Amino acid sequence: MQIVISPKVRKIILVTLVVALFIISILAIRPLIIPQTEEIATGLPADAQAAVNAATAFYTLDYTESGDLWATRLCAYATDAGCRAIQDFFAPAVQAMVQKNQIQSGCTVEPVRLVADKGDIHIWQVTVSMDNLWPGLDAPTQDVYVEVEKVNSRWLMNRILFEQEIRRIITPTP
Fold first, then answer.
1. Is the pTM above the cut of 0.85?
2. Which of 14, 72, 88, 143 has the greatest count of CB atoms below 10 A from its CB?
3. How far is CA 165 from the centre of its chain?
């Protein structure tokens, strides 16, 4: 048994396929042509949300957790370079402080403003409010500066800035 398709039906099928391919092509290249500011369900721009997520993970500390859990949780929001810095530099010092002082603290983080926009690297000022102070912490609320980077269309933390870097940003030298 042979199926015979009339030339008119064949033409309709061909036109439909061409139109479908055209629409798929447009949808595929649209993000490359029209830059979009991605907003998360919270209504924050994606870069601000990345800064909030990273700062929240950074300042959520619990002496009852295993030593690697803090770094692992934080690395989920970090670039590869940021994660290496966390694991190699921050994690040992933070874990020692957390264990010594038996710190168990959560926090609330709110974005304040975009401080620097260097294309795919942004610096966000966020306010971190801790629910449990520990020795060496001056106040329950602090302004923190978070550098985030767009990597493969996803914003991730590079690092939390040090005081010296923050002073340079706030009062730049001519």
1. no
2. 72
3. 20
